[in-house]
Amino acid sequence: MFRIWLLCMLLKNKILRKIFACLLTLLAASFAVFAAFEIIPGDAAVSRLGSNASESAVAALRVEMGLDKPFLLRYFLWLGGLFRLDLGTSYSYGIPVSEMLLDKLPITLCLTLMSMAVTVAVSVPLSIFYAKYARSRIDRTGYVGNQLLMAVPSFFLGIIMTWVFGSILRWFTPGGYVSYKKSFGGFLSYLILPSLAIAIPKCAMSVKLLRSAILTEADKEYVRTAYSRGLSTMEVLYRHVLKNAMIPLVTFWSMAVADMVAGSIVIEQVFNIPGLGRILLTSIANRDYPVVEAVIMLIAAVVVIMNYAADLICRRIDPRIRER
Amino acid sequence: MPQDRSEDKGEMKKYANFNFICGAVICSLMVLMALVSCFYTPYPSTAMDASLKFARPGLMHIMGCDNYGRDIFSRVMEGIRNTSLIALLTVFIGTLAGVIVGAVCGYFGGLPDEILMRINDLLFSFPSILLALVIISLTGTGTLNVTLALGLAFIPSFARIVRSEVRKQAALDYVQSARILGAGHFRVIFAHILPNIVPVLLSSVMIGFNNAVLAEAGLSYLGIGVQPPEASLGRMLSEAQSYLFTAPWYAVFPGLVIMLMVLGFALLAEGMSEGNG
Description:
The structure holds two protein chains of two kinds.
Chain A: H1 2-12, H2 14-39, H3 44-49, H4 55-65, H5 71-83, H6 97-132, H7 137-151, H8 154-168, H9 184-218, H10 221-228, H11 233-270, H12 276-285, H13 289-317, H14 319-323
Helix pairs in contact in A: 2-13, 6-9, 6-11, 7-9, 8-9, 8-11, 9-11, 10-11, 11-12, 11-13, 12-13
Chain B: H1 2-39, H2 72-108, H3 110-125, H4 128-139, H5 143-170, H6 173-180, H7 185-221, H8 233-241, H9 248-276
């Protein structure tokens, strides 16, 4: 009884309720992922040993891999493992998945963070600039450039960058990836171009979104009121307009993070970076399901956490959402 | 002040019109290339000629030749066809399933709606190219599987749009009138509400088509989509990357064509939605 009461009290707190919902979503996602890989035809033990292995060897391996246990039990064992960061053993390499991923995680994380930082740092000032000169020649030229950059696939941008900076300007050695363990500075400087390739299309979209949001907000009554109270343009812009205009953008960015993780899978191939994307692609090709499951769960966690973070930020910016 | 606004609107209309015209020109060019490639390409797209290896772009081969001496322009034409065919099918699957799920959820509401939309939200925030990768890891590679995977991955975004539109429409009076006149629920949804959300749906279909083109190109670039010797724009880019420094045109032209394709449909969608609103 007490426990139920405690749970109810906890759920009354909106932030805790949101966290609870996040965990529930992740739980559902984990079940869906596990079940999906259960349904597909083919026996992992057979695929590991080859189709002409003896039956007894396959049976022995099934016991060793725990495939003889019932489905739900295996799901809970796997789920329990997730909490202890024990993600199972890779079928094709025979080493723990967590060990494989832990090495590569910082690479993809760095790439995503850098792209996000570039997007935020460039798009906000740029859209303010465009909004300031709205409907002038600068704005129109910017609009054309923006449309072009929104249409370009990031991997094509990456290829063009390799060509321009690698062959013509010779500022950059293609394929000269430096491990972050060897030299962190070299590692970061190699990641500059890939993160730009991911960030530029996202930047263009953010600018478009924020510019039109600023212009819409600037037409509203509260702006006139703010001016009539004697605030300067800068004060109105930063204290009132931007605060409202940022809300759709924060939501967009939270989704962009997930897109950037996905984009980094492709970009890692372009720039020959051995990150999570490489692992995901090879393990899909090798049907190395524990690895695929782990990577998917990792990305799902990133997605859920980012959505949650965006929600928190929106609440902070906009008290109207907090009330709901 | 009011006069000022109307002028503004007029200018926006002109702007939208310009977008629409540019988009229409680019799109019709792409459609034309795709259609013509069904029965005519300047050179056979798989004909190899060692003497033409890495021929520069010129009058004979306007986009040059690739590492096997194949004419890049012919392959680009075929690539446009393959890519847009996959993207069209993807959008078709996504829209069909999305409309059904979204319309039924939005119209009836209640617990099933709540549950389906929770799932939908999670899938929606999951990047579609990744979702497609997951599905492909279950089904295996190949053109058909990629199309199916992308189609499934695009359902959530359409379901979401359709649901919110149907919810808006369902609250309007004409729905109640239709119910009073004796129309069944499904008749109301598909014969009365759906025609009213077509404008919104149309522009999201165009944006969806663009995303499908980009996703397909990305998957083909990773070697998962269209299999050789069939031409695909993404695949050409990945092949071109090895010869980037000796034959940059091999990478530049297919990439530019993808860009142009996406740009065309984006402008068309924008022109359409701004022209309506």
